[in-house]
Amino acid sequence: MSSCPMRWFVRGLFVFAVPLLAFSQESLPSRTIPARDVPVPNTVSTELQKFIAKPPPPNTPMPMTAAGWKKLQREHDAEIEKVSLALAKELGVKLEPVEVAGVKCHRVTPKAVLPDCEKFLIVNVHGGAYVFNAGLASVGEAVLLADACKTRVLSVDYRLPPDHPFPAASDDVLAVWKAVCKDHDPKAVVMGGTSAGGGLIMTTMLRCKADKLPIPAALFLGTPGADMTKTGDSIFINAEIDHALGRYEGRMEECVKLYANGKDLKDPLLSPIYGEFAGWPPAILVSGTRDLLLSATVRTHRKLRAAGVVAELHVYEGMSHADYLGAFPAPESPDALTEIAAFFARHLKR
Questions:
Q1: Which residues contact 231 (CB under 8 A, 6 or more apart)?
Q2: Which residues, listed in sequence order, are joined to residue 283 by a DSSP beta bridge?
Q3: What would the pLDDT profile of 210-250 be if each residue is shown by its tens digit?
């Protein structure tokens, strides 16, 4: 496929001798960096180079009304649906709408399920800044995971704001997980998702631990929405470098606020990085050097490790937010998907 299937899916040297942790990020010293050109790296495939060269999305004003948001969602999701269906057709992946625990979902079946994967299931939670990718627009990542892992996927089409703000999405994912556990051995199920999907998987783990529910065998957290606040090095350093997200201010910030619906953004059920990770299942995390959420991914990885959780971090050269999906089939994309598949295979109960 020559186009970028998930393109819309997303659109120092000195240590100060003061107790920096006592300061907020805004009150810390800052450095002014001279304007400079940032070349496309020659250390990635030619296919990924073309993708990296794309400009960041325009920072246009966001809707001020619910009707305006719904119009933007319809326009955005119509494009993503076309891409998702084309991707499924190209890879021979079957899509079937279903309802699980009252939540809309899709069963995603690869062209061939490996014989030793018949009993396994991947629960996928899609991204889209907690606002976009409803209906068939939600299945793009699930299609790629099903094909790479040769395993059936249940893709959760959770409710979205403005009609259904926090905690609707989190409630939906948890409801689906509880239903899955009734029909499957949790040790034969994994969960995976990117961006908002990764964040929702993390909040699901927090809720599972709080309610003493079973947990999956392993997690894939793709550049997760672990922190909704403007916190971390890369959210400053990679502003406008990330061609998918652009910068925190504008589209990303307004989507976060729409979903949060006035709640404190540091609530662990919105920003799970502030929750407790002990007892979580093994996790593989993926990001890129130009990802606005690279720091959120790194911080999540280090906190998992500190909690004694088995965790792998894969950072790809030159990639912006979720480029391992959007740049498919550039060689780096199948490479990342193969790593995820291998990680799941190592941790699923045989």
A1: 25, 295, 296
A2: 219, 311
A3: 999 999 999 999 999 999 999 999 999 999 999 999 999 99
